[in-house]
Design brief:
This protein is mostly helical. It contains 12 helices and no strands. Helix 6 runs parallel beside helix 8, helix 7 packs antiparallel against helix 8 and helix 8 packs parallel to helix 10. The longest helix has 30 residues. The N terminus and C terminus are likely disordered.
Amino acid sequence: MRMLPIRSTALVLVAALALAGCARGGGTRADLPYVARDVGTLYTAAKDRLDRGQYKLAAALFDEVERQHPYSVWARRAQLMGAFAYYLDRNYTQAIQSSQRFLAVHPGNRDAPYAYYLIALSYYEQISDVTRDQKITQQALDALGELNRRYPNTRYAADARLKVDLVRDHLAGKEMEVGRYYQVRGQWLAAIIRFRTVVDTYQTTTHTPEALMRLTESYLALGVKEEAKKAAAVLGANYPGTQWYARAYELIGKHGEAVAVPASAAATAPKLDDVPKPKPVDDETN
């Protein structure tokens, strides 16, 4: 980097102080004073603020690079760096918008995988516990899947695949939470639909054994013993050593039925897809 003129350096410092004041006051980029600066000087100031952990100010300065020098090579890099600064500042909405704007202008750029990664991470960081609405969780899953589909051989996709498993487990947990809610209120068919979703859509998650046991409970509560036995058999075939199978086995026994699936018979036992599917019912709970 060439030596910066004293006047340019002073301008950057003055602008940085103005930006800091706007940042503390909750200002947006539209509130920032326009001070014409050399593109290299401006970008360096933004990078310096990023390195110091002043992420909000860094994001504003990177935006200024794009604002003042939209057709320079620096602007393209600043656009993505600004998105990264917003992410570090936990301003995930702005990070997503900045990344999407980068992709709209530079769809074939070599840094496009990273832009998709920032979008996915920004959704992922906003995932809430299973007692709340899971719209963001689904958006995170979609964004991670998009990254993996477009750029499967990148290091970003490798991390995305790990996060996909966690997100799917979270979504399955939400289905279980709602299913148990219906069970407590005796709405057995609605509960079965939720547990079936876990078995059908999220069968590789940690919630599948409990879902099969809950299906056994719900079918027995409806008096549909054959379906209950099938669910318990699938549970025994796939998860024979779990507490969930022990409970299902006990439940079936209390109803005068027998369902024993030895470990040696697991290969020929019913699979997860063999559990009967109930007909849809009206469901007003998210």
